[in-house]
C-alpha cells in the first residue's frame, strides 16, 4: 500500500547515482507533402526542431524533474555535441554531472524526423560508436564513479550498449554499492543478464526479456516462470518486465508475479518512456517503499511520459493527476445516492483492468483516524469506493441525535478527499448488498476489526480478493468527539 502524499514529500530528499550512456536527442518536426525529384524519397518541410539530453541523461532529467538530486556519470566525445550536453547538464540545478571524455569516439547523437501532425517517426539518423570504452577510458570511468557511491541513496545503471557500462565497470559499481548495503537498479541492454549479477532489480522490456531468457514472454505466467530462472542466474531480488500497452509485470524472487495494466492514455511518443520508468522506480525504492508501490508509481509515470512528444520528463503534479485522476472532480461528481447506478463506473474500471477497492463507515465527523484508513485503502488499489451509511441507517446504528451531519454533507466531505474516487450511499445497516454489487479486489477496514468481523469478507475472498486491515490511530473516535462536543453526553 502506498501513500502518495508521503512519497511526494520523501522523494525530494533522495539522491540517485545514475551511470549510463549519455546522448544528444534532436527532434525535427515537419510535414511531408511531396517526393524529392532527385530520388524516390519523401521531403520533409521542417517547421521546428528541439534538442534534449537523452539516453541515460534523460533518466537524470526525470529524477531532477521529480525534485530529487541526481549525480550523473557518463561519457562524451570531444566534439560539439559533447560540449552542448555538458552545458545543458550544467544548467540543471539538481543534476551534478561527472563526465569523462573520450577523444576516440563521437558523442552519441540521435536525430529523429517526426510528422508534426501525426506524431509518427519517419526517419532516425544516428552518430555513434557503439563499442566498449577502451581500457584507459574504462579505468577513468571507474575511478570517477566509485567515490560517488557513498553519496547516493540508490544506484541506477542505464545501459544503452554504447560503451560506458562495460562488464568491468558494471562489476565494480555493483560490488561497491552492495558493500555499502545499498540497492542497484539496472535498465539492461545486454541479453546476458549474468553481467548484472548482484543487482537488486532488472527492468528489461518484453523484447529484451524474451531474448535474454529465450522464452516467448507472451503471458504473465510465461514471464513469471522465465523470470525466476533469470533472477537465479543474475542473483537479483526482482525483475520488472515492461510491456508497452500491455502494462508491466513485476516478479519478486521466490514470490508471485504482480501485473498492472497500462493506464489509458493517448500515446504520442514512446521515446524515453523506459528512462522515466527506471527513474521513478529508483526514487520510489530509495524511500524504502515496497515493490508494489514502486510498480504502480512507475506505471503511472510511463503513462504520463508516452502522452508527450519527444524525450519527456514527468513532474510531481502530472504524476499526481495520473495516480489520483478523480482528485480534480467536483464533490458532487463523485457521489452516488442510495440505489444509484454504479454499473457505468465499474464497467469502465474493469475494462481498463483496474484494481477496485472498497471500505465503508458512517464518517459522521471526519477525523485523522478516518483519513489514515482511507489513504491506506487508496494505496492498495487503483480506484477506491466508499460505502457511506445513509442518515436512517446511522440513526438505527448509533441512536437518537446521530448523525451530527446529514448524508449529503458527509458524502461531500469524503468526496473532497483526493484518495476517494467514488462515494456510494447505502440505506441498509450493513454494506453487504453494495459489496456484492461492487465485487472489490480489496476490502479495507481499520485494525480494530478482525478479518472475520469485516462484513463482506467471504464475498471478496471467494472471488480472489483480499481483506486489508489498517492500524488505527489511538485516541480518535467519532463517538468520543461527539460526546466531548456535547459536554460529555454520548
From TrEMBL:
<dbReference type="GO" id="GO:0033786">
    <property type="term" value="F:heptose-1-phosphate adenylyltransferase activity"/>
</dbReference>
<keyword id="KW-0547">Nucleotide-binding</keyword>
<dbReference type="InterPro" id="IPR011611">
    <property type="entry name" value="PfkB_dom"/>
</dbReference>
<comment type="pathway">
    <text>Nucleotide-sugar biosynthesis; ADP-L-glycero-beta-D-manno-heptose biosynthesis; ADP-L-glycero-beta-D-manno-heptose from D-glycero-beta-D-manno-heptose 7-phosphate: step 3/4.</text>
</comment>
<feature type="domain" description="Carbohydrate kinase PfkB">
    <location>
        <begin position="15"/>
        <end position="316"/>
    </location>
</feature>
<dbReference type="InterPro" id="IPR011913">
    <property type="entry name" value="RfaE_dom_I"/>
</dbReference>
<keyword id="KW-0119">Carbohydrate metabolism</keyword>
<dbReference type="GO" id="GO:0016773">
    <property type="term" value="F:phosphotransferase activity, alcohol group as acceptor"/>
</dbReference>
<dbReference type="GO" id="GO:0009244">
    <property type="term" value="P:lipopolysaccharide core region biosynthetic process"/>
</dbReference>
<feature type="region of interest" description="Ribokinase">
    <location>
        <begin position="1"/>
        <end position="329"/>
    </location>
</feature>
<comment type="similarity">
    <text>In the N-terminal section; belongs to the carbohydrate kinase PfkB family.</text>
</comment>
<protein>
    <recommendedName>
        <fullName>Bifunctional protein HldE</fullName>
        <ecNumber>2.7.1.167</ecNumber>
        <ecNumber>2.7.7.70</ecNumber>
    </recommendedName>
</protein>
<dbReference type="InterPro" id="IPR023030">
    <property type="entry name" value="Bifunc_HldE"/>
</dbReference>
<comment type="similarity">
    <text>In the C-terminal section; belongs to the cytidylyltransferase family.</text>
</comment>
<dbReference type="GO" id="GO:0033785">
    <property type="term" value="F:heptose 7-phosphate kinase activity"/>
</dbReference>
<keyword id="KW-0511">Multifunctional enzyme</keyword>
<feature type="binding site">
    <location>
        <begin position="205"/>
        <end position="208"/>
    </location>
    <ligand>
        <name>ATP</name>
    </ligand>
</feature>
<dbReference type="GO" id="GO:0005829">
    <property type="term" value="C:cytosol"/>
</dbReference>
<feature type="active site">
    <location>
        <position position="275"/>
    </location>
</feature>
<feature type="region of interest" description="Cytidylyltransferase">
    <location>
        <begin position="358"/>
        <end position="490"/>
    </location>
</feature>
<feature type="domain" description="Cytidyltransferase-like">
    <location>
        <begin position="358"/>
        <end position="452"/>
    </location>
</feature>
<dbReference type="InterPro" id="IPR002173">
    <property type="entry name" value="Carboh/pur_kinase_PfkB_CS"/>
</dbReference>
<dbReference type="InterPro" id="IPR014729">
    <property type="entry name" value="Rossmann-like_a/b/a_fold"/>
</dbReference>
<keyword id="KW-0067">ATP-binding</keyword>
<keyword id="KW-0808">Transferase</keyword>
<dbReference type="Pfam" id="PF00294">
    <property type="entry name" value="PfkB"/>
</dbReference>
<dbReference type="InterPro" id="IPR011914">
    <property type="entry name" value="RfaE_dom_II"/>
</dbReference>
<comment type="function">
    <text>Catalyzes the ADP transfer from ATP to D-glycero-beta-D-manno-heptose 1-phosphate, yielding ADP-D-glycero-beta-D-manno-heptose.</text>
</comment>
<keyword id="KW-0548">Nucleotidyltransferase</keyword>
<dbReference type="GO" id="GO:0097171">
    <property type="term" value="P:ADP-L-glycero-beta-D-manno-heptose biosynthetic process"/>
</dbReference>
<comment type="pathway">
    <text>Bacterial outer membrane biogenesis; LPS core biosynthesis.</text>
</comment>
<dbReference type="InterPro" id="IPR029056">
    <property type="entry name" value="Ribokinase-like"/>
</dbReference>
<dbReference type="GO" id="GO:0005524">
    <property type="term" value="F:ATP binding"/>
</dbReference>
<keyword id="KW-0418">Kinase</keyword>
<comment type="subunit">
    <text>Homodimer.</text>
</comment>
<dbReference type="Pfam" id="PF01467">
    <property type="entry name" value="CTP_transf_like"/>
</dbReference>
<dbReference type="InterPro" id="IPR004821">
    <property type="entry name" value="Cyt_trans-like"/>
</dbReference>
